[in-house]
Amino acid sequence: MSFSVKNKTALVTGGGSGIGYEFTKLLLENGANVFIADLCLRPESEELIAKYQSHPKATFHKIDVTDWAQLDDMFVAATEQFGTIDIVSPSAGIFEPPISGFWIPPGTKPSIDDPHGGRHQTVDVNFTHPIRVSQLTISHFMCSSPTSSSENPKSIVHTCSVASQGAGMMFPLYVATKHGLDGFVRSMGDLEASHGIRVTAVEPGAVKTPLFTEHPEKMRMMDQKLDDWVYPQEVAKVMLALVQNHEVGNDEIFSTDRVFDKEAAKIQIRGGSVVEVLVGNLREVPLFGNQGPMSSGAQGWKPSAGAAAYQETVQMLKPGWGQV
Fold first, then answer.
1. DSSP letter string, 100-167
2. pTM for the whole thing?
């Protein structure tokens, strides 16, 4: 699949902050229009939109990604604004915040999940939303003129996590959604050969974004002296490579001083590819026989100060827990 984002149009949910913002910025810098769908914009994303008001062009559409009607309207608005969409990234996500976490059940403070609502916001945002967006995207690609094909390729790039490869008692909803999304992406792999639609994913470790840094309950797991971050700009570079390239390597993504393994072979990219992003290191995550993110020896896959948070979770389980 040969593809350049220049003069193409991308739709990015969660493009107002974090990884989604950095991917949006990189797409614009490479000549793509971007339709940003998010609840709100941070100052840096407002500045980005103001900067790109001709060609390429950035626009903002306010949306709650848990509302399917709003997802439908998002595609209508994007096509009215730009016509055909070529790249979609359902990047909106949450890291099991206290308002929607397994260990703070619906009906107990500060959860906003309705005990009679039949859903968790964390699952809606992290799992249901990217799947529904993928359905709508594939429908759009198949209805476009010309339709997607090897001669007219399209791309969907998802944001998973190294949590897709492991387990964690502290954030079980987050872990479950990322496991599910990993399996979904792999299941879509054959679409590239059959219909020219490449579906891929990144699986970063601890990324320095507001999803982490603005939540004290997450930050206390990071030892600022021992732990190093994955940068969102690095994750965005991998996402761009997943859209455009046939292969990607450490030297293309990381600055020289951050490359962990200078001899690492390049990763071949195809439909269903899942690429792990740790500090200075990329790794193709195999479907079978995966030895996990610790196998490379690179940092960034597990915060070193998580033991205290784990014990806090264990201590929550007392008679009466979960009673509303």
1. GBTTB-TTSTT--S-TTSS--HHHIIIIIHHHHHHHHHHHHHHHSSSPP-SSS-EEEEEE--GGGGS-
2. 0.95
